[in-house]
């Protein structure tokens, strides 16, 4: 079960790691155009107004402004950032197999500071902002320059390529259902294909491993190449990852994946989705995997694994373990938490519950949404200002550090109040796993239409309103 913060996380940093985090914030706030770190842009004018604003914020209006921001890592600025000189940006580090350095330059040339800043705070959700930056730093071995390139490239991917927050998360399953009924091809097919995967349970979330990490199950035998469009496969993958992020808590910042290879055949082999999954985890969701369990893989998979292993970052490959039976799986997951389908004692079975009419009605309450967004924007501005004080004071006081912690908690609890106005309800909301106020309850949920009564485990991601703090949660 989760305990103290792991090394390299908020609350468990060495002096050198804390310095790298301060340098990362300095570089990030420069890109955001925040006053005091703005490189000639007007950070005070930036507002955090939700996922739509990232699209509406537009591009940088002048070539002069573009030039200043592209030269963020030029020789005359590199001392401010505390990393290597500018010429290495073009090549970044040896791990830039996804061309993020090139993408980084493109983002700075085409996107406004407002859009990038908005995308970042939209991604934060209930996470610790320090924790999010630390993911990128750890993934790039504490090299601030390379971590920033990775971060900004991810913001571009979320805004312009996948439209994570303004489409995938905002429209969700109900949006896919509407597309499958009311849209025309190819949107109609993509909506249908997305829901087919949800209904099959090709991938689903349930329970935790021995470290308290949420479990993601992938039933490989349910995938057949060509049955769903590439776009729907990618959308389903990102949707599952984003939903799993909601199940994380402050001291549990990674997930566990179980690839169930039962009855695998070559008809299930499809390298396209595998490559996409590897890419998004390595490039856009760094340091998010705690362990990957490949369960009951047949002998024919050995050759496939040699190929896949070559595509993986060595650190990610080192997290992959093969289990042949329930006894080996129980080394990682309590037997009571292993679903009966895999030979464990948890009688829970996957059953898809269709979206309910009106479940996303709060999204249409623009007045309340804007009020909550404005409140969050004020906390964000306070957090950024307090972070600047922390950076400038090498011997920051306990009171200043405590202030940052308080603001982090306000961002977390404020997100859960804002959540139903921005995010479409998921299967896990409908079955009582994700509950109001950020309470996560996997086992014995009283509202669950699919859960079992075998045991109980809950995680507090944010305080529940008084009317929900009852004995039914115990």
Automatic annotation (TrEMBL):
Q: Which CDD domains match?
A: SEC14 (cd00170)
Q: Which InterPro entries match?
A: CRAL-TRIO_dom, CRAL-TRIO_dom_sf, CRAL/TRIO_N_dom, CRAL/TRIO_N_dom_sf, PITP/CRAL-TRIO
The CRAL-TRIO domain extends over 193-350
The protein's matches in Pfam families, at most eight in alphabetical order, are given as: CRAL_TRIO, CRAL_TRIO_N
Q: Where is this region: Disordered?
A: 444-474
Which residue stretches does the UniProt record annotate as biased composition, category Polar residues?
444-461
Official protein name in the record: CRAL-TRIO domain-containing protein
Lineage, broadest ranks: Eukaryota, Fungi, Dikarya, Ascomycota, Pezizomycotina
């Amino acid at each position: 079960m989760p305990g103290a913060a792991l090394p390299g996380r908020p609350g468990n940093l060495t002096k050198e790691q804390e310095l790298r985090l301060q340098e990362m914030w300095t570089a990030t706030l420069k890109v955001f155009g925040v006053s005091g770190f703005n490189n000639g842009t007007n950070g005070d004018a930036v507002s955090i107004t939700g996922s739509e604003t990232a699209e509406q914020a537009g591009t940088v209006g002048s070539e002069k402004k573009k030039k200043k921001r592209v030269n963020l890592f030029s020789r005359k600025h590199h001392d401010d950032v505390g990393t290597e000189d500018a010429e290495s940006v073009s090549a970044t580090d040896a791990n830039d197999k996804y061309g993020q350095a090139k993408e980084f330059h493109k983002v700075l040339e085409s996107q406004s500071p407002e859009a990038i800043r908005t995308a970042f705070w939209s991604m934060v959700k209930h996470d610790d902002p320090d924790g999010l930056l630390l993911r990128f730093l750890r993934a790039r071995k504490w090299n601030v320059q390379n971590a920033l390139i990775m971060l900004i490239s991810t913001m571009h991917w979320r805004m312009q390529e996948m439209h994570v927050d303004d489409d995938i998360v905002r429209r969700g399953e109900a949006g896919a259902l509407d597309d499958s009924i009311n849209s025309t091809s190819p949107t109609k097919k993509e909506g249908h294909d997305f829901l087919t995967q949800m209904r099959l349970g090709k991938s689903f979330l349930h329970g935790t491993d021995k470290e308290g990490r949420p479990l993601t199950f992938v039933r490989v035998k349910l995938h057949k190449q060509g049955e769903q469009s590439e776009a729907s496969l990618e959308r389903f993958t990102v949707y599952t990852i984003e939903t799993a992020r909601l199940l994380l808590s402050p001291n549990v910042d990674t997930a566990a994946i179980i690839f169930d290879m039962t009855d695998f055949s070559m008809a299930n082999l499809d390298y396209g989705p595998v490559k996409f999954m590897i890419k998004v985890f390595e490039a856009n969701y760094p340091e998010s995997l705690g362990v990957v369990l490949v369960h009951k893989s047949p002998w024919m998979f050995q050759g496939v694994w040699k190929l896949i292993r070559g595509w993986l970052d060595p650190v990610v490959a080192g997290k992959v373990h093969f289990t042949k039976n329930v006894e080996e799986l129980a080394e990682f997951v309590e037997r009571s938490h292993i679903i009966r389908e895999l030979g464990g004692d948890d009688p829970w079975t996957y059953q898809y519950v269709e979206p309910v009419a009106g479940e996303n009605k709060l999204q249409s309450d623009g007045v309340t949404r804007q009020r909550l967004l404005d409140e969050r924007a004020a906390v964000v501005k306070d957090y950024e200002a307090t972070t600047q004080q922390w950076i400038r004071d090498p011997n920051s006081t306990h009171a200043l550090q405590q202030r940052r912690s308080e603001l982090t908690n306000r961002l977390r609890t404020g997100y859960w109040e804002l959540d139903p106005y921005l995010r479409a309800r998921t299967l896990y909301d409908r079955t009582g796993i994700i509950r109001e106020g950020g309470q996560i309850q996997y086992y014995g949920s009283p509202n669950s239409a699919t859960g079992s009564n075998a045991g109980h485990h809950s995680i507090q991601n944010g305080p529940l309103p008084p009317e929900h703090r009852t004995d039914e949660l115990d």
